[in-house]
Design brief:
The protein has 66 residues and is mostly helical. Helix content is 39%, strand content 0%. The termini are far apart.
């Protein structure tokens, strides 16, 4: 139930509100699907040797071995 201040307007939200609200789940599903395609179909993943001390892909230093 929506509460309004005394004297405030109780008009409904603009019609485009539902359209904008629907974009969140659509984007979430779309990006999840694309992530699944990267993993399952194209085999993109994280290296088994990656760890907390792994270097950034932008740096040129080697990773430390434990």
């Amino acid at each position: 139930m929506r509460r309004t201040a005394v004297g405030a307007s109780t008009r409904p939200p603009p019609p485009r509100t539902a359209d904008v609200a629907a974009l969140g789940p659509i984007l979430a599903l779309g990006t999840a699907w694309l992530g699944g395609e990267l993993v399952e179909r194209l085999g993109v993943g994280v290296s088994d040797e990656a760890g907390v001390d792994a270097p950034s892909s932008l740096s040129h230093r080697a990773a430390r071995r434990a």
